[in-house]
Write a structure and sequence with these properties.
Layout lengths: L1 E8 L9 E9 L4 E8 L8 H7 L12 H12 L3 E4 L2 H14 L8 E3 H8 L8 H8 L9 H18 L5 H4 L7 H12 L6 E6 L5 E7 L2 H10 L3 H9 L2 E6 L3 H13 L1
Parallel strand pairs: 1-4, 4-5
Antiparallel strand pairs: 1-2, 2-3, 6-7, 6-8
Length: about 260
């Protein structure tokens, strides 16, 4: 399942923009099965050049819902779906920023139709949405409005799905913001560690030990380390390539060897 969206903003400094309009179409690969379209009161002024580009002005948004009033609907329609947009890094960043302001960690896997078009529709002079869909003969209304741009992106994405004959390019292009790939890698490392008393050594890309640990159940200790969210633990998780271990069979010997190796 996919949620194809477009967002219009106030413009302004990076990460200080506010949403003025959002359109989301839930797409099952064949047809749109749900949709959400709304103006949004950004509680800040719209940059003049944006007003000229989109036609959305401050007066139009006075009675529009504020982001927190539509946040639940956005969560519902995007749940368990890959988020798709033309230049997804922009739309995803804007949504994450708004949810961050509410104290919520918004995480969705993403696909970018700019990147996919560059892989599946070759030799185009421009991959901007307007020029690309014109070149492809995709009809469009309300350019630079959320619904118009999102609907054009739906049609573009349909075409990209058809062109991906092997059904591998789109799948391989998904950015897993839920850290699925990293979690799978760490799970494979944990699987090789025994439930024994001893020491374990986590190695980086160059083979050097980046972390030394010990425990009565070293598999459990490694698992605990990989679940931690401290800066040090996350750094180890990101750099971990392999794990070696030494079964000691004796708690006193384990502690002695651990402290000797720490000081070495």
């Amino acid at each position: 399942m996919y949620t194809i969206l477009d967002i219009e903003t106030t413009g302004g400094k990076f990460n200080e923009e506010g949403i003025t309009e959002i359109a989301i179409y839930k797409f099952d690969g064949h047809a749109v099965v749900d949709q959400f379209i709304s103006l949004v009161n950004p509680e800040k002024e719209i940059q003049p050049f944006v007003v000229q580009l989109t036609g959305i002005n401050n007066k139009m948004l006075q009675n529009a819902p504020k982001f927190y009033e539509i946040a639940k609907r956005i969560l519902e329609i995007t749940k368990d779906a890959t988020l798709v947009a033309h230049n997804t890094s922009f739309d995803y960043r804007i949504l994450k920023t708004e949810f961050d302001r509410l104290g919520y960690d918004f995480t969705r896997n993403t696909l970018c139709t700019v990147e996919l078009s560059q892989k599946l529709i070759l030799d185009q002079p421009s991959y901007s949405l307007g020029k690309l869909i014109k070149a492809l003969g995709i009809p469009m209304t309300d350019r630079h409005r959320a619904s118009g741009d999102a609907l054009a992106t739906v049609q573009l994405f349909k075409l990209l799905l058809e062109k991906d004959v092997t059904k591998t390019i789109i799948q391989d292009s998904i950015k897993y913001h839920d850290k699925r790939v990293e979690k799978e890698r760490l799970q494979k490392l944990i699987a090789a560690v025994p439930k024994e008393l001893g020491l374990f050594y986590i190695h980086g890309a160059d083979g050097k030990v980046i972390y030394l640990g010990r425990g009565k159940d070293i598999k459990s200790e490694v698992n605990k380390l990989f679940l931690k969210e401290t800066k040090r633990a996350v750094k180890v998780q990101d750099r971990a390539i392999s794990i070696s271990f030494e079964k000691t069979g004796n708690d006193l010997f384990t502690r002695l060897k651990y402290y000797i190796e720490l000081e070495a």
